[in-house]
Automatic annotation (TrEMBL):
The chain crosses the membrane at residues 230-252. GO terms for cellular component: plasma membrane. This is Efflux RND transporter permease subunit. InterPro entries: AcrB_DN_DC_subdom, Acrflvin-R. Pfam families: ACR_tran (PF00873). Keywords: Membrane, Transmembrane, Transmembrane helix. It comes from Acinetobacter baumannii. The keyword Transmembrane applies. GO terms for molecular function: xenobiotic transmembrane transporter activity.
């Protein structure tokens, strides 16, 4: 299907204006849509502080919830270390920009140095040369002149800033950080959402003063509403079917038979759903709701026809087969 769409689009791509990018055709994956969105806002934290707290304290806990496939951040301010090189000072020391770049690449790393065997255990050794504090970048040695080291801070300015925002999130007109929660492909939406609510309540007690969260999207609400609609349809259908048979046929036996048709069929359907590993989702609920309506109509019509054949003098088995 995706290839068919690409084939249809290909002939008209040449007619696009130059500033229009080539269309991307992708298959829709329901698991790639968030089942829940939560916004965090604070009146005591900057956006950078809020982003750091949510990224380090909230997101890791949400990822541990059973059934959660991924957690995405929107509107977060990512930390960025900017190094502004001064060309005049580089020239005065006879240093090229390549030396600065290579120093940053080679010095700000963690290098494995092998392992140490100790009786029944094995220890991994790493050389820690990664810069921890932003000011540490300024102390990196980029060259040596006449036996004296030239530090990065002598030819550049190091700034601890934030990266350009790729997305923005607002809640009640205030800047916020949004968290989108995606479920794994085989997880149940309602169960994952319920467990996420429980995790958020536990995290709420640990949040600093002034930090609040609000669930702004919850896809389980639609599923819960659909389940209620199906249950209401079953109850209303069963009551109406029983009343119609009782009023028009006047037979208590026919009323009982018609009334039992719905729960027996529903029980069998749910058994097969469980046996074949299907889940209760929007599609299965829609199919169940439609089939219940057809079942009620057919049960009344078939039972009325069986009664008619019985009144013609046929035995019950023959009347049931002919009806």
């Amino acid at each position: 299907a995706a290839q068919d769409v690409r084939d249809k689009i290909a002939p008209v791509i040449a007619q696009f204006r130059d500033e229009i990018d080539t269309p991307i055709v992708q298959r829709y994956d329901p698991s790639s849509s968030p089942i829940m969105s939560v916004v965090f806002e604070s009146n005591s934290m900057s956006l950078a502080q809020l982003s750091s707290y949510v990224d380090k304290k909230i997101v890791p806990q949400l990822k541990t919830v059973s059934g959660v496939g991924n957690v995405n951040l929107l509107g977060d301010a990512k930390r960025q270390i900017r190094i502004k090189v001064h060309p005049e000072q580089l020239q005065s020391y006879g240093i090229g920009i390549d030396q600065v770049i290579n120093t940053l690449k080679n010095e700000n790393i963690e290098v494995p140095a092998g392992t140490l065997q100790q009786k029944n255990s094995e220890l991994v050794v790493q050389i820690q040369s990664k810069v921890i504090h932003p000011l540490g970048f300024g102390d990196l040695v980029i060259a040596n002149k006449n036996g004296s080291p030239i530090f990065l801070k002598q030819v550049a300015t190091v700034e601890d800033t934030q990266a350009e925002l790729q997305s923005s999130a607002f809640y009640n007109g205030r800047t916020a950080v949004s968290v989108d929660i995606l479920k794994s492909s085989d997880a149940n939406v309602i169960q994952v959402v319920d467990k996420t609510y429980q995790t958020l309540e536990k995290l709420k007690a640990q949040m600093p003063a002034g930090l609040n969260y609000k669930v702004v999207a919850d896809s389980s609400k639609g599923i819960r509403a659909s389940i209620k609609d199906v249950v209401r349809t079953i109850i209303e259908g069963a009551v109406l079917a029983v009343l119609i048979v009782l009023l028009f046929l006047g037979s208590f036996r026919s009323t009982v038979i018609t009334g039992l048709t719905l729960p027996i069929t529903l029980l069998g359907t749910l058994t097969f759903i469980w046996a074949f590993g299907f889940s209760i989702n929007m599609m299965t609920l829609l199919a169940l709701s439609l089939s219940i309506g057809l079942l009620i109509d057919d049960a009344i019509v078939v039972r009325e026809n069986i009664v008619r054949h019985t009144e013609l003098g046929k035995d019950h088995v023959t009347a049931a087969l002919d009806g």
